[in-house]
Amino acid sequence: MSKRKQQSGQNDGEDSDMDIDQVDFDFFDPDPEVDYLAIKTFSTQLWQGDAAQLDIPDMAELILAQPEVGTTVKSDGKESDPLSILTVINLHAHQSRPFVKTLVEYALKGSRGNDKAHAAFQELLGPAGLQSQKHVGFVFSERFVNMPVQTVPPMYRMLEEELSWAIESNKPFKFSHLLFLSRTYRVSTEEAAELEERANKRQKATPSLKENDLIPIHPEDEQIAQASERLAQAVHAIDEAYPAS
Question: How many CB atoms lie under 10 A from the CB of residue 56?
Fold first, then answer.
């Protein structure tokens, strides 16, 4: 039985009198019998060429070993392949697993060009950090390109509920930090020129995007980044107002 059902409509064309395709989406717990290959596919989609640096089969096993946390979205019943997935893995509780070791190495190596991010990763995921009480949860979220973004908020609401239930049951899902990895692309010279031309036609001072700007593939990733920045600023303000003795 699915957790929840959601209906989505999609126009076949731009005209309002065109037919609309209605698709029913069901939300399920991750299923070890069905979802293993799909999780590997989503991993390759997320990391692209970097996927070879990570132990993806072990990550799939980790996700499927904790069906009480996480959600898949399907449109053709429980036995069909998932179209989306959202879950979280405790990097501290599973630090001896091959995937977690490769992910930590990937994060530390990839952040070397950003001193602030690298220092944070080193503090949380370095040898000393992995022995601390500050547990980091890696949020794995990926979906097919044509999946409507409207299916995302219910998945996060369900994840929040499931984490609360897991914590009440003394399971290792209490996190001090969450790690999100997002796919992005850079605005090309051609795209920047097209955006500038549109801005000029609309009599805007500047286009909204410029050449080499980084754009997230999934629109919710930008909202998550902004929320994270606001939270970090609030924590910093509290630390300054009430310094540790």
Answer: 21
C-alpha torsion sign, points 45, 48, 50, 53: positive
Confirm if 4 and 158 have CB atoms less than 8 A apart. Answer: yes
Helix (H, G, I), strand (E, B) or coil at 180: strand
Query: Do residues 127 and 104 touch, judged by C-beta distance below 8 A?
Result: no
Q: Which of 116-125, 134-143, 236-245 has the lowest mean pLDDT?
A: 236-245
pLDDT at 162: 97
Q: Has residue 240 got a pLDDT over 70?
A: no
Quickly list DSSP for 59-72. Answer: HHHHHHT-TTS-EE
Mean pLDDT for 161-189 is 91
Structural domains of the chain ordered from first start:
4-182 (3.40.630)
Place of tokens 């009440």: 168
DSSP 7-46: EEEEESSSSTTS-EEEEEEEEE---TTTSHHHHHHHHHHH
Mean pLDDT of all residues belonging to the chain = 86
- 91, 155 Cβ separation under 8 angstroms: no
Query: Which single residue is written with the structure tokens 């069906």?
Result: 67
Per-position DSSP letters for 44-100, written without gaps between them: HHHHGGGGGGS-HHHHHHHHHT-TTS-EEEESS-TTSPPSEEEEEEETTTTTTSHHH
- Look at residue 14 and tell me whether its pLDDT is greater than 60: no
CA distance 208 to 33: 46
- Banded pLDDT at 227 (limits 50, 70, 90): confident
